[in-house]
Amino acid sequence: MSKPRGVLVAGNWKMNHGPAATRGFLETLGKLEFPSAIVQRASRGRALQGAILVPAVSLEAARSVIDAQGWSDVLQVGAQNAHFEASGAFTGELSGPLLKEIGVNLALVGHSERRQYFGETDESAGKRTASLLSQGFEVILCVGENRSERKTGRTKAVLSKQLTEAFQAAQSWMTSRGLELTPTHWARLAIAYEPVWAIGTGLTASPEQAQDAHLFIRTWLEKSAKTAGFPLPPAQTTAILYGGSVTPDNFSGLLACPDVDGGLVGGASLKPESFLKLIEAAAQVI
Ligand code: PGA
Questions:
Q1: Is the C-beta atom of 262 inside 6 A of ligand 1?
Q2: Of 14, 51, 60, 109, which is most buried by a Cβ count within 10 Å?
Q3: Per-residue pLDDT for 43 more than 80?
């Protein structure tokens, strides 16, 4: 099997692993000969990429160990959120320039826990996406329906609304600054489909449910490109990751779906042994 868009395995550590635990995780990964699985595959010319999205206090520790090990081509370090403004009175927030200063160029945006507990909206997620992309960041933008939306058959309507509002807000953000999102920017965007009912619950979407939602998102991008009146991420080349109770046991089945281009993994990314198994599952489909 081959994956035309490559495969990204991104671990979302949430509020776990301070700097000491981060160093310990990476040290163990090194002992497990982490890079060999990924480097051998990468040398075949297709992209298999790992990433860890770590707590803010652990970014520098992760960055420096990964640099020292020479793994920066295969394992990226990312933030779990970043503000759209570059600086200012936004207590508790991190910005693109602050992250760049410590060598971080990847951020997660619009995670459902940010939406659920911290008031993030489609609009703020869209602004963060636009701002970070325009600063040269790689961005993973999360969307996904909750349990009652799935039960009442509204999954696609919800995804469509989330994408519409986020990309409209991204466009307004750029226009208000006289900027434009170009194909170079869009090439750094991945969308993560994360059904809220599957996050941290052990209830994974079946491969059929994941493929159905991923294809819907890709088709939405294709159709909306003709009607939106402003640029959108390209449908065929934008990576769409699945997230929600991914484990080493169910990841292969999800990756077998043609429109699943990787995973955004919480719980199963916290232990190096398990993270490596996810990478190895991804290596099988590259
Ligand atoms: P989970 O989390 O893998 O623990 O369900 C996924 C996520 O929230 O990104």
A1: no
A2: 109
A3: no
In angstroms, the CA 257 to CA 254 distance is 6
Cβ(200) – ligand 1 distance below 6 Å: yes
% pLDDT > 90, the chain: 90
Q: What is the mean pLDDT of the chain?
A: 95
| Mean pLDDT calculated for residue range 73-102 | 97
Distance 229 CA to ligand 1 centre (A): 34
Q: What is the CATH number of the domain that holds 165?
A: 3.20.20.70
Single pTM value for the model? 0.97
| Domain annotation covers residue 1 | no
196 CA to middle of ligand 1, Å? 9
CB of 244 within 6 A of ligand 1: the answer is: yes
- Indicate if the pLDDT at residue 174 is higher than 80: yes
- Which of the residues 138, 145, 149, 194 is marked catalytic? 194
Domain count, the chain: 1
Note the pLDDT of residue 23. Answer: 98
Any domain includes 118: yes
Domain range enclosing 238 = 7-283
Is residue 247 situated within a structural domain?
A: yes
Give the pLDDT confidence of 112-135 residue by residue, as tens digits: 999 999 999 999 999 999 999 999
CA distance 138 to 209: 27
State if residue 80 touches ligand 1 by the CB under 6 angstroms criterion.
no
Residue 2 falls within a domain, yes or no?
no
